[in-house]
Structures are given as C-alpha cells and as structure tokens.
Amino acid sequence: MEKPQQKLVISEKDILHKIKELANKIDNDFNEEPVVFIGTLKGAFMFLSDLVKHIKNPNVEVDFVRVKSYGLSDKSSGNVELVKDLELPVEGKNVIIVEDIVDTGLTLKFLYERIKELNPKTLKVCALINKKERREVDVPVDYIGFEVEKGFLVGYGLDFAERYRHLSEVYEVVKDE
Ligand code: IMP
User: Fold this and answer.
1) Percent of the chain predicted with pLDDT > 70
2) What is the pLDDT of residue 79?
3) Looking at the DSSP assignment, which residues form a beta bridge with residue 119?
4) In order of start, what are the domains of the chain with their CATH numbers?
5) pLDDT band at 155 (very low <50, low <70, confident <90, very high)
6) Closest Cα to atom 11 of ligand 1
7) Backbone dihedral region of 138: left (phi > 0), alpha (psi from -120 to 50 degrees) or beta?
8) Which residue ranges run through the membrane (predicted)?
C-alpha cells in the first residue's frame, strides 16, 4: 500500500486503546440516556465508526454533517459553510459532536454554535486529535484522544488533497527538502 512521505504519529493499537477509554468515559457520563453522535464528514468517518462500536449505551443515534472551509492554504480560513446538514432532530437530546481534528477551532466553533441553536439538552465535543497550540478561537473540547503540537497529519480519516484517508494509522506528512 502506498503511504505518504511520512512519520508515524499514532499507531492503530494506540488509536483503538484510546477509543475504548473515550467510549468508557462517555458511557459513564450518560449511562443509558439517549445520545446522538454527530460525525463531521469526511474526516471523522473512521473515528466515529470505531467509537460507537465501543459504546455500551443502547440508546444511541448517529448522524453526520459536512462542513467545508474555503481558503487557499492548508489552514482553516474561517469561511465555513455547512454543505450537509443534520437529518435527525436534536432538540432536548444529548448531543456529541465527533471531530477528527481541532486545529484553529474555526470549523468546530461554527458547528457548535449552529447545533446549540437547535436547543439540545447537552452539547459535548469529542475529538480524536487536538492541536491546542494552533487554536485561534475558544471552543470546548470535552473528550480528547490525542494532543499533537504541530504538523500536517493524514490517515485514519484525515486527508491530504483527498488521499490517505483509508490508512489505519495517523502519519505526519514530511515535506521533501
Ligand atoms: P480548524 O477549523 O482549523 O480547526 O480545522 C478543522 C478541520 O481542518 C479538520 O476537521 C480537518 O478536516 C482539517 N484539518 C486540520 N488540520 C489537519 C491536518 O493536520 N490534517 C488533515 N486535516 C486537517
């Protein structure tokens, strides 16, 4: 399988171990109360799918949104648009936004505020990767898989120009000198 010029950052074993921990925490926080997991396409598709497999709560619903951020660089521009909206009603429900990676926070802030307007009972955020050092706006992230300082990451749902999403581990793209 072709891989990017890369450096392994998070192994498949570590991802699965962390997902089990996160699923346990979420189960402890909500017990059997209904919870709607909202995955952000496309990056969170693998994370969401592995996460919900380890949730023991029988009252789970799953939905997806797709948010696009327009700009020329590999960094969020803040011009965020919802290109696929929620399909399930969330008013009065416990909602967890499941994000692949929170970088500047601009995408998540947009989504958080949009879902908050729909009056959920509770609204939490679960992110596989948090790049806290790069944050530009304040957004709460309640469940965090891994803290990563910098670097452009691919694999396990994350892409570079739509490639490498299928890889089962997370790599940092190493640019040629
Ligand atoms: P933010 O708005 O800057 O927080 O960016 C969030 C979105 O940008 C994520 O949901 C990803 O889709 C994408 N993104 C940010 N950093 C990376 C990265 O290192 N690799 C791949 N996608 C990224």
Assistant:
1) 91
2) 81
3) none
4) 11-152 (3.40.50.2020)
5) very high
6) 101
7) beta
8) none
| pLDDT score of 77 | 63
Looking at the chain, how many residues does it have? 177
Instruction: List active site positions.
Output: 103
Pocket test of ligand 1: the residue of 101, 129, 133, 156 to mutate, having most ligand atoms within 8 Å of its CB, is 101
Probe target for ligand 1 pocket from 76, 131, 136, 141, with the most ligand atoms within 8 Å of CB: 76
What is the per-residue pLDDT for 177?
54
pTM of the model: 0.94
Amino acid at 78: G
- Is the Cβ atom of 105 under 6 angstroms away from ligand 1? yes
**Which residues, other chains included, contact 114 with Cβ-Cβ below 8 Å and sequence gap of 6+?**
82
Closest residue to atom 20 of ligand 1, CA basis? 153
Q: Is 69 in the pocket of ligand 1 (CB under 6 A)?
A: yes
- Average confidence score pLDDT of the chain: 92
